Amino acid sequence: MSLLDEQRAYYEARAGEYDEWWYRQGRYALAPDERERWLTAVAFAERTLDEFRPSGDVLEFACGTGLWTRHLARHAGTVLAVDASPAMIDCNRARRLGDHVRYRQADIFAWAPRRPPSTWSSSATGCRMFQPSSSQRSGTRSPRRSGRADESS
Questions:
Q1: What is the pTM of this model?
Q2: Distance between CA 55 and CA 75 in Å, rounded?
Q3: N or C: at which end does the chain have fewer Cβ atoms within 10 angstroms?
Q4: 127: domain range?
Q5: Which of 50, 53, 114, 52 is nearest to 82 (CA)?
């Protein structure tokens, strides 16, 4: 089994408990001082994302259960939330974030969007935002390591 297959299986198995882990609840509970530090860091990241106000068409890689998608959806014109795990996408979709949020189950290393987004987001235990380069906005490069933006999504 490849590393990517192992990661996909891991997140597929954990989808139902991921938010419990994120919020440090139940068996993932921390000591009060550690939990306070964690929640303070999370609040800072959420506030920073809201202040950034990603707009236009946002492509979110590793969307998971929607912990970050919910923030992106408040500001973006559209969000395409992509994850390799169908179970993670199901959890995300259950948040009912609006018709402007679409989902795609895909291996991000083998897939590219039909058209480049105005903002990309990677949500692997924290949100990283960046603006694509001019060549990426023009469609000459996809988020993957090489190749052109794919016309079938």
A1: 0.76
A2: 6
A3: N
A4: 3-137
A5: 114
Residues listed for the chain:
153
Contact by Cβ (8 Å): 15, 87: yes
| CATH number, domain with residue 69 | 3.40.50.150
Instruction: Give the model's pLDDT for residue 122.
Output: 59
Question: What does the longest C-alpha to C-alpha distance in the chain come to?
Answer: 50
Cα→Cα distances 78→2, 32, 34, 108, Å = 33, 38, 36, 19
Q: Where are the beta strands (DSSP E) in the chain?
A: 57-61, 78-83, 101-105, 119-122, 128-130
Predicted confidence (pLDDT) per residue in 49-89, tens digit = 889 888 899 999 899 999 999 999 999 999 999 999 999 99
| Structural domain total, the chain | 1
Place of tokens 């402007």: 100
Q: How far apart are CA 50 and CA 46, in angstroms?
A: 6
